[in-house]
């Protein structure tokens, strides 16, 4: 059974995952209105992935005898100056999420809640991937600079992203 402190901490992370989804959906809308359909698609897939993260925690809370308490999701920003500004914010946001996950792991270890610790390891690994993929796109955008052809090619590449629900 989850302690009330652990339950509260995971509930806060569920909100953070849903905020991430909302943030990426706002970025998707931004790109869609700016005719960068591939980037809009990538962000939409990213938003779906964050919903999955939230649901994975939602199910875990109930599985451990706790209760999910949903709270208001903050309003995300709506406009960015450049694609580089958007993806730099993704990277910064994912680094922040990594810190939140690490705090949750510390909390679980402090409580000697081994089941929660093991559950969270999936997210620890996932964050390595999340930061790496955002970082790779930031690097490409830096190389591209103001080259419209380069931006076009990257947009086509990001249009290929597929999200399939991981096996829980
Ligand atoms: Fe749910 Fe992008 O971390």
Contiguous uncertain segments of 5+ residues: none
Estimate what percentage of residues fall within beta strands.
under 5%
Radius of gyration: 17 Å
Count of discrete alpha- or pi-helical segments spanning 4 or more residues:
5
State the order of secondary-structure elements, H for helix, E for strand: HHHHH
End-to-end separation in angstroms reads 20 Å
CATH architecture field: Up-down Bundle
User: Kindly state the mean pLDDT as a whole number?
Assistant: 96
CATH 4th-level superfamily: Ferritin, core subunit, four-helix bundle
- Name the bound molecules: MU-OXO-diiron
CATH topology term:
Ferritin
State the helical fraction: over 70%
The number of distinct structural domains comes to: 1
What does this structure look like?
This protein is 76% helix and 0% strand. The chain is mostly helical and 168 residues long. It has one domain (4-158): Ferritin (Up-down Bundle). The mean pLDDT is 96. The protein binds MU-OXO-diiron (FEO). MU-OXO-diiron binds next to helix 1, helix 2 and helix 3.
